[in-house]
Amino acid sequence: MKISGRTFVVSGGASGLGRACVREICAGGGNAAILDMNEELGSTLAGELGASAKFVPCDVSDTSSVAAAVQAAVAAGLILDKQRQPLALEAVDFVLAINVRGTLDVVRQALPHLAAAAPEGADGERGVVVMVASVAAFEGQMGQVAYAASKGAVAAMTLPMARDLSRFGIRVVTVAPGPFDTAMTAVMSDKVREGLRKAVEFPARSGRPEEFAALVRHAIENVMLNGVVIRLDGASRMPSKL
């Protein structure tokens, strides 16, 4: 994409890294919509850059403020879903509530019981948390913005959670499966299932639930597995679309 003649929406564009990006965009012949809460800095920057920059007050923690700012930004880009419609925030909230908040809630409710368990073995281990991410965390497909973000969050929390729980003798391991035969894939069209199968290098098939369970068992039994995200995908790499 060429910068010249295009308009870019820069969140936090009034200062720091965002400010530097605004200047670079305008220097390259582009236009910048500066979204920020700091009206003084934003207006000053827009004034310095002239017609190529526009300051738009915006609080990104307030959905209505974001909506108004985007509407005010000329030629603002939109994240689209598979139907080429703006990604519904309700859909994002639904997916994040299940895959991120739900995962964390289950873990936090179980942790007091794990921490209270008697330490076992020479290492004094008390337990292990095994979470499920997805290869979509690394190569999400078209229409998977919310899903990929949610599974990426699970992958990202693995190491800091392992560090937080290390003093209790509790390990954290995350499995990121590729295509597997599950109830979810069973309702997919033949075309989609075949596309998923072709993405797997070897073995040339989808994974089986018992193979996933075997890795989980190994994660439980191998005390050196900690703070790691393990791909279980037959060397598959998801294409942008099926």
UniProtKB/TrEMBL annotation:
Pfam families: adh_short (PF00106). Keywords: NADP, Oxidoreductase. GO terms for molecular function: oxidoreductase activity. The keyword Oxidoreductase applies. InterPro entries: NAD(P)-bd_dom_sf, Sc_DH/Rdtase_CS, SDR_fam. It comes from the Eukaryota. The keyword Oxidoreductase applies. This is 8bc47def-46d2-40f0-b282-687707878f6d. It comes from Thermothielavioides terrestris.
